[in-house]
Amino acid sequence: MTINLLQRFFSYFYPIKVDSAVGKTTPHIGLYRYAGRWQLSAATALYSDGAAYRPLRAAFHYLKKELPQKQKMLVLGGGLGSAVAILHKLKLPIHSTLVEIDPQIINWGKDIIEAETKYPCHWINADVQQFVSQHNATYDLIVLDVFQDRIVPQFVSNTSFLQQCKALMSDDKSVLIFNYIINNEENWKEALQNIKSVFTIEHTINIGINRIMMLRNNA
Fold it and tell me: Partners of 141 in the beta sheet?
């Protein structure tokens, strides 16, 4: 992914739109360059923000002591690969599998990540719900970061889906990072109850209406 010198200069002052497309799950997606990083936007949400993506920066900071021991990461809702960009900044070459439903986002993400890092990274164009139900590999680090604009799809917090995610955790030292946005208190209470029935919530980070939870296998 390239931009000209003029775009690069002005992008340090305000976001510059580089490309746009019709989204698979949202009417419009836009690719922006801002302050030296790539951003992915929908109508009301910022899906990726390079190595500055706050929810995962905060989660990885909390896990900083154990991250060097992680070998395989699964990202459900890959976006432009912010998870990989942050690991690259931390100098942690964890093998990453990113599942993303939108092929255009994957095309952008591949170009960006391949240009910025040499880390092992495998992109899968699939519906997250279907992928989780059919996949049987295991991972010691899982990121659940699935949204439609600012809405968490209902299936993401269903007990059956969470159980399937849990089955992908390699052992009791594995961790699942769940980024949830609260739009409705009743929905959040129900989601939290489902999460607690499947996982142990080790720690929660509050960033505005985001709740970033570190989940452990409670089996």
Answer: 73, 175
